[in-house]
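I'd like us to work through together how a protein chain folds, taking it slowly. To get us started, please write out a protein record for me. Go ahead whenever you are ready, and we will take it from there:
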Amino acid sequence: MPIHHHVYFSFNDSASEEDTQSIVEQFYALKKTNLIQDFFHGINNSPELLNKGLTHAFIIYFSSTSDRDTYLSHPLHVAFVEYLKPFLKDVMVFDFEPSTI
């Protein structure tokens, strides 16, 4: 069953535009793991103001929970998380298997 992995960030005030751009580029580079089926990202522009301060969204598709779990412990992902931590103000992760009614 495919997995949708949603990751939402807000960055510390000290994070520059260059820092956030580097983070986005390094996140995209995780496609090298060959576990990611598809990857999208964007900056919040909702007029509803319900983002709770989270500004950047990353949507990653995996073909299975096994691929997602392997990705989470992959050395490239672990190194990315360590690089990212000093820049983060907040993070939320939400994974689900898509279903229809």
The chain has a mean pLDDT of 96. The longest strand covers residues 3-11. DSSP finds three helices and four strands in the chain. The beta strands are 3-11, 36-43, 56-62, 88-96.
